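Query structure, 147 tokens:
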């Protein structure tokens, strides 16, 4: 399940790189971007994740997945609007706009993906909650400075 989420997140990152490559060429940007070969996405991946979450996921894990999915949906809507503008109006998204989307939406997506992975790991007993790890680090620092 985590592999499917990771793959989809990285697919969107590569796809945005392709949009940037097209915009850079279109606007004669000095930066050079190479297009990335993307595999086909399948709906069955989403169905597999949903089935596993519904059967085995806690409320926290399902909530983290919903948060991650909402970031993916925001990116998909952005891509759809770019594609529509390109096909219907012949207008490509600007390089700066694509870069802003990459900086903001992809950052949100990566954070949500990480939170989902942390929630799954915590539920499986593989990792302590981030707040507990943070408190441990503070205690260790206090101990080092007190001595």
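Result returned for the query:
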């Amino acid at each position: 399940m985590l592999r499917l989420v990771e793959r989809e997140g990285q697919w969107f990152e590569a796809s945005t790189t392709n949009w940037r490559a097209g915009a850079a060429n279109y606007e004669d940007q000095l930066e050079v971007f190479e297009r990335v070969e993307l595999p086909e996405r399948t709906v069955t991946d989403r169905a597999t994740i949903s089935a596993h979450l519904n059967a085995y996921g806690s409320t926290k894990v399902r909530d983290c997945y919903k948060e991650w999915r909402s970031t993916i949906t925001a990116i998909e809507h952005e891509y759809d609007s770019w594609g529509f503008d390109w096909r219907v109006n012949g207008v490509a998204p600007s390089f700066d706009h694509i870069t802003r989307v990459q900086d903001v939406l992809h950052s949100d997506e990566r954070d949500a993906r990480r939170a989902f992975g942390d929630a799954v790991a915590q539920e499986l007993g593989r990792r302590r909650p981030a707040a507990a790890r943070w408190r441990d680090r503070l205690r260790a620092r206090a101990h080092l400075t007190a001595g």
